[in-house]
Specification:
This is Secondary thiamine-phosphate synthase enzyme. InterPro entries: UPF0047_YjbQ-like, YjbQ-like_sf. By secondary structure, the protein is largely without helices or strands. Helix content is 15%, strand content 7%. The protein has one domain. It has one helix and two strands. A two-stranded antiparallel ribbon has the order 1-2. A hairpin with a 2-residue loop joins strand 1 and strand 2 (22-23). The protein starts with a helix and ends in a 31-residue tail after the last strand. 0% of the residues are buried. The mean pLDDT is 81.
Length: 54
């Protein structure tokens, strides 16, 4: 399966709410990394924070 199809099915970004410095996920929710290659190289993670400080 080509990477374009995988990206369309799985997406390439995620938004995770954070409350009091912790992920605000439901009981059965989690964050998983799926690698669809035989030889994974280095990755770069880009984090953008939006919100207010208390």
């Amino acid at each position: 399966m080509t990477s374009h199809i995988k990206s369309s099915i799985l997406g390439s970004s995620v938004s995770i709410p954070i409350t009091n410095g912790r992920f605000n996920l439901g009981t059965w929710q989690g964050v998983y990394l799926c690698e669809h290659r035989n030889r994974g190289g280095s990755r770069r993670l880009v984090v953008t924070l939006n919100g207010e400080t208390e």
